[in-house]
């Protein structure tokens, strides 16, 4: 009793917020809910964490938006928000008034001064931004970290 083989299979997508090996322990409870001592542990092999990338954006690439539209960028992983300081740039230059994070620091909403009418803009997020594991951004989604994310969009004409 209590010496039966037990197998537990776990899988990792590479999008986890941990970069390293995991340790598994087991305990058991008797009929009085008294817990046993911790078993010997088993450690996994090193489990890599992939580079973060952009999974969606508003606007989408080459779309037309209003001059007051918020820009929303959604990342595949939890991002290190401090790595974004002064790493977001609009061309032509436009003042960013706030960068708000939500969805466990996976969604960035950029508030800004009004865009000019009928103007093409490029938003660039620098290649040096990282996730919580310190992995650099894969901005072009090619599987290799260290690329900026570049979004091109235009604003509508004045009514």
Task: Characterise this structure.
- With 159 residues, the chain is mainly beta.
- Helices cover 0% and strands 29% of the residues.
- It contains no helices and ten strands.
- Strands 3-5-8-7 form a four-stranded antiparallel β-sheet, with no helix packed on it. It has a four-stranded mixed β-sheet with strand order 4-10-9-6, with no helix packed on it.
Outline the secondary-structure elements:
Blueprint: E1 23-24, E2 42-43, E3 54-58, E4 64-65, E5 71-75, E6 88-91, E7 96-102, E8 107-112, E9 120-125, E10 149-155
Parallel strand pairs: 4-10
Antiparallel strand pairs: 1-2, 3-5, 5-8, 6-9, 7-8, 9-10
Please provide a brief summary of the model.
With 159 residues, this protein is mainly beta. It is built from no helices and 10 strands.
What keyword list fits this structure?
159 residues, Immunoglobulin-like, 4-stranded antiparallel β-sheet, 10 strands, mainly beta, 2 domains
